[in-house]
């Protein structure tokens, strides 16, 4: 009997011990500890100063503990903390976010929701995790598990931006990674960043509206602006963004290369193209329209783009066959340059006979004025064969280089310049007569235009010679040139000098405005390189 009684007491004792352990365990589980590290990335042009990382719980309590400073010189963070709940939020907060152009943007917090059961792990913070945070808490408050809430919220963001549904791992993407998710993050981040910079926003949340009943983001307010910035980055239609914030595709590539582990750059333009396609009037680049060409208009001119590999990009010569340069329905003449035997097509327009190709004469022995003053675009001889040669103004006029910075007298009228015998450098009046033709001038090569006139103009860019100023305010020119605007502009010299100083001349540009061509008579630096279209001599009027 005593034995049975002892056993019962032992059982009760053991039961009490286990019961106390479970209660202690339950009480202990009210507090959760963990450590996290990663990167907190606002974008490419906004950097954080005097930032702190916070760990806290928003539901069911509002406890914020575990504050750690974030190094000013790095986007990396590390934090340890103990909070009253299994699900916590990490947030980087600062009162100073600055752009490279010293624009101050306040309260641009980043956040990410984490499960402390997966503590001691790498978790990144970015605009995507920040947008998802609010919706994740909304689902958790409804009793949905963390992982399901995270997946639903991240998917909602992907649906908003029309991004692939499988790129939901926001917490592990980096602006400087090379994966598809990294590229998508980069594209979304830079348009959000530009939205903040352009509007000098002072808000800790990205202002996108959420329908809490459906768990969907609404395309209102800021969304049209975001896709506008994608348009501007891809096609240069937001020149103020580049001039004000130093932001363009090349600068983003440079930042990516500098921060990636091996110098690689993700294909983030692919995802900018997706955003671009969401703008009214734009078309997404997909496998269904691969190879399609389309003109987009901006800054008073239009440029032709092609859909390739899910990305709209500016066309290049490799996208075309050279047979597209001329109009097969136009009757062309022929000019053979006796100096080098090169043959050029010619076309008659409004009583004048023009070369239908840009001049490609390069004999600097016979014409010493060409030495160091003419170039093939990108210094590639193949470009001279297709587009002709770029000349400084003195070379085009077959004058010594001293006239790049002084007045050249006697250059009016039918001035031959570097043209073949019996032909002359075009005058402004020649171009005005050309313009009176109510038809298109651009070749179908690197363009969607029909080349009705047969003038066969190609938007083959120009050569820009950069300069600085000396102590007396005079121009100091670089020895080399920089090639620009291939596929965008067609620039040709005229013989006219625009000022008494002779330092600048008129440059004629044929540019597209809406669906027609127009002449743009602009001052051009004599040191720059433009193309030459010679005109057959005619009887010069005397008064």
Determine the structural class based on helices, strands and strand pairing: alpha+beta
Q: Calculate the terminal CA-CA distance, rounded to whole Å.
A: 143 Å
**In percent, how helical is the residue content?**
10-25%
- Model regions low in confidence, pLDDT < 50 over at least 5 residues: 1-28
Average pLDDT figure = 81
Q: Count of DSSP E strands?
A: 29
Question: Number of helical runs?
Answer: 11
Shape: elongated
Indicate the radius of gyration in whole angstroms: 33 Å
Please indicate the percent range of residues in DSSP E strands (runs of 2 or more): 25-35%
Describe the model.
- With 543 residues, the chain is of the alpha+beta class.
- It is elongated.
- It has eleven helices and 29 strands.
- The protein has helices spanning 2-28, 127-141, 146-160, 180-199, 223-235, 239-245, 249-259, 269-276, 381-387, 393-396, 428-435, and strands spanning 32-39, 47-49, 52-57, 63-69, 76-83, 87-93, 96-98, 104-105, 110-115, 121-122, 209-211, 216-218, 293-298, 301-308, 311-314, 333-336, 343-349, 352-355, 374-375, 390-391, 423-424, 460-464, 467-469, 475-477, 482-486, 491-497, 504-513, 516-525, 535-536.
- The model is unreliable at 1-28 (pLDDT under 50).
- 40% of the residues are buried.
- A hairpin with a 5-residue loop joins strand 7 (96-98) and strand 8.
Write the layout of secondary structure elements.
Blueprint: H1 2-28, E1 32-39, E2 47-49, E3 52-57, E4 63-69, E5 76-83, E6 87-93, E7 96-98, E8 104-105, E9 110-115, E10 121-122, H2 127-141, H3 146-160, H4 180-199, E11 209-211, E12 216-218, H5 223-235, H6 239-245, H7 249-259, H8 269-276, E13 293-298, E14 301-308, E15 311-314, E16 333-336, E17 343-349, E18 352-355, E19 374-375, H9 381-387, E20 390-391, H10 393-396, E21 423-424, H11 428-435, E22 460-464, E23 467-469, E24 475-477, E25 482-486, E26 491-497, E27 504-513, E28 516-525, E29 535-536
Parallel strand pairs: 1-10
Antiparallel strand pairs: 1-5, 2-7, 3-4, 3-6, 6-9, 7-8, 11-12, 13-14, 14-15, 16-17, 17-18, 19-20, 21-29, 22-25, 23-24, 26-27, 27-28
């Amino acid at each position: 009997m005593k034995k049975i009684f002892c056993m019962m007491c032992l059982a009760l004792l053991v039961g009490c011990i286990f019961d106390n352990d479970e209660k202690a365990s339950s009480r202990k589980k009210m507090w959760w500890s963990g450590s996290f590290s990663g990167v907190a990335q606002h974008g490419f042009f906004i950097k954080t100063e005097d930032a702190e990382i916070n760990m806290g719980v928003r539901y069911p309590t509002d406890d914020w503990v575990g504050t750690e400073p974030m190094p000013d010189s790095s986007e990396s963070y590390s934090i340890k903390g103990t909070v009253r709940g299994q699900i916590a939020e990490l947030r980087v907060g600062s009162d100073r976010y600055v752009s490279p152009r010293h624009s101050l943007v306040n309260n641009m917090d980043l956040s990410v929701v984490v499960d402390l059961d997966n503590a001691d792990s790498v978790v990144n913070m970015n605009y995507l995790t920040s947008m998802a945070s609010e919706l994740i808490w909304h689902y958790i408050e409804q009793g949905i598990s963390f992982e399901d809430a995270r997946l639903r919220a991240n998917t909602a963001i992907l649906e908003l931006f029309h991004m692939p549904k499988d790129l939901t791992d926001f917490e592990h993407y980096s602006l400087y990674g090379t994966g598809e998710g990294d590229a998508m993050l980069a594209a979304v981040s830079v348009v959000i960043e530009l939205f903040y910079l352009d509007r000098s926003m002072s808000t800790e949340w990205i202002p996108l509206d959420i329908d809490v009943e459906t768990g969907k983001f609404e395309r209102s307010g800021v969304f049209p602006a975001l896709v506008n910035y994608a348009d501007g980055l891809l096609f240069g239609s937001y020149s103020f963004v580049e001039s004000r914030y130093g932001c363009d595709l090349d600068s983003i590539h440079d930042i990516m290369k500098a921060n990636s582990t091996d110098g690689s750059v993700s294909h983030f333009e692919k995802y900018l193209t997706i955003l671009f396609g969401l703008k009214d009037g734009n078309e997404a680049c997909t496998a269904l329209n691969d190879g399609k060409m389309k003109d987009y208009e901006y800054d008073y001119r239009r440029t032709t783009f092609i859909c390739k590999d899910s990305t709209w990009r500016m066309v290049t010569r490799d996208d075309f066959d050279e047979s597209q340069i001329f109009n097969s329905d136009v009757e062309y003449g022929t000019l053979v340059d006796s100096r080098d035997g090169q043959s050029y097509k010619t076309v008659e327009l409004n009583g004048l006979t023009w070369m239908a190709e840009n001049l490609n004469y390069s004999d600097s022995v016979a014409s010493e004025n060409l030495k160091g003053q003419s170039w093939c675009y990108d210094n590639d001889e193949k470009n001279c064969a297709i587009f002709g040669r770029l000349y400084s103004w003195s070379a085009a006029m077959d004058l010594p280089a001293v006239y790049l910075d002084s007045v050249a007298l006697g250059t009016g009228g039918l001035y031959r310049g570097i043209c073949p015998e019996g032909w002359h450098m075009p005058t402004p009046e020649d171009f005005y007569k050309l313009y009176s033709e109510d038809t298109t001038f651009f070749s179908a090569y690197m363009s969607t235009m029909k080349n009705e006139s047969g003038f066969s103009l190609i938007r083959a860019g120009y050569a820009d010679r950069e300069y600085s100023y000396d102590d007396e305010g005079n121009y100091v020119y670089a020895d080399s040139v920089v090639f620009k605007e291939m596929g965008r502009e067609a620039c040709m010299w005229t013989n006219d000098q625009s000022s008494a100083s002779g330092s600048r001349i008129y440059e004629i540009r044929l540019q597209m405005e809406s669906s027609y061509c127009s002449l743009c008579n602009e001052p051009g630096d004599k040191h720059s390189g433009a193309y030459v279209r010679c005109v057959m001599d005619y009887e010069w009027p005397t008064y």
